[in-house]
Write a structure and sequence with these properties.
The chain contains 13 helices and three strands, in the order αααααβββαααααααα. It is mostly helical. Helix 2 runs antiparallel to helix 9, helix 2 runs parallel beside helix 12 and helix 10 packs antiparallel against helix 11.
């Protein structure tokens, strides 16, 4: 546990720096899936490592040791984690958990708002045109989702560009990109180190929709022109870009990518990321196994001490509960020579 418990934390730090850069070298769809898997695995590894580190301090509290029926001196002898590290880990985990709960409530409210807005929009078709001179176009997730386009945006684009814009928004709905966004936001709430990864994920989703729109329209240049014109039309009047919008992400980089050939399929970044995620899972599994063994040894030591110690006049002198059936278990599974 001395080394393995820190492996998920180290992997998270490495992927936070490297994953956004590597994602830009991948095809957008593969990049989005890779970043989603990275966020999920590293979040579990991060929280699991902090929980194990925090538990090493909590387990040494006499009242907790009495409930668990393990020996505090034996636990301290086997535990290589400093108490200050355990306390810091517990505080970081509690703060992250509170932030996660707040973010989960916000995400739930956002999805409920999107569903209500879908129901309020005029018409029953996928496309809802609103009478608004402000240029905007975005996708609202729902059951089913809707594409919202203002008349101001339609006036800014020609026929081909309108088709490209609608294909872009349909790609957001078809790919259920709001699920990816929710995952990244929740992961970043629990672990602030993952915020750059969430930003890179949002850009990958826009690029994913761009590539699907280019495939549907049959012209990368038309999609690039639509993205550029939509961004230029909306930027002076719109202070905040709606989620899953054609004007989202780094527009100049998206336009340059569309004017270039389609990104090639690269397997080396995927293989490297998969190796690091496997290392993260293996480190957490090994640390969990070591922690379980440590507690089992501490319980065995407590049972051994209870059997070999002279009878006390008062049970509270033992500072633990009577062992009940735990000693019988360790007599069957432990080493008999330690029992007398």
């Amino acid at each position: 546990m001395l080394i393995s418990v820190y492996v998920p934390l180290a992997v998270t730090a490495v992927l936070t720096v490297c994953a956004p850069r590597l994602a830009r070298r991948l095809a957008p769809r593969r990049a989005a899936w890779a970043l989603a898997c990275t966020a999920l695995v590293t979040t579990v590894g991060w929280a699991g490592s902090l929980a194990l580190l925090a538990f090493t301090g909590i387990a040494q509290i006499p009242e907790v040791a009495a409930e668990g029926r393990w020996s505090v001196p034996a636990l301290r002898a086997e535990d290589p984690v400093l108490l200050v590290v355990a306390v810091i880990s517990a505080l970081v985990l509690l703060a992250g958990t509170a932030s996660l709960l707040v973010a989960a409530v916000r995400q739930a409210r956002h999805l409920l708002w999107a569903r209500r807005e879908c129901a309020r929009l005029p018409g029953d078709n996928e496309l809802a045109v609103v009478d608004d001179d402000t240029p905007h176009a975005f996708a609202l997730p729902g059951a089913p989702g809707r594409i919202v386009v203002s008349r101001g945006m339609l006036r800014c684009l020609d026929h081909e560009e309108r088709e490209a814009m609608l294909a872009h928004e349909r790609a957001h709905l078809r790919g259920r990109h709001h699920v990816f966004q929710s995952l990244w936001r929740l992961a970043a709430a629990l672990n602030p180190l993952l915020r750059p990864l969430a930003d890179a994920g949002g850009f990958a989703l826009e690029r994913w929709a761009d590539e699907e729109a280019a495939a549907r329209v049959g012209s990368r240049r038309v999609v690039a022109r639509a993205v550029g014109r939509a961004a230029l039309a909306s930027s002076p009047r719109t202070a905040i870009t709606p989620p899953l919008a054609v004007t989202g992400g780094a527009v100049p980089q998206r336009v340059r990518a569309l004017l270039a050939p389609p990104p090639p399929r690269r397997t080396l970044p995927i293989a490297g990321g998969a190796l690091l995620l496997t290392l993260c899972c293996a480190g957490l599994a090994n640390a969990t196994s070591d922690s379980d063994k440590m507690l089992d040894d501490a319980q065995r030591a407590q049972c051994t001490a209870s059997l070999t110690r002279p009878s006390a006049s008062r049970p509270e002198d033992l500072n633990v509960r009577p062992p009940h059936g735990c000693c019988e278990h360790h007599m069957r599974t432990g080493r008999p020579e330690h029992l007398g």
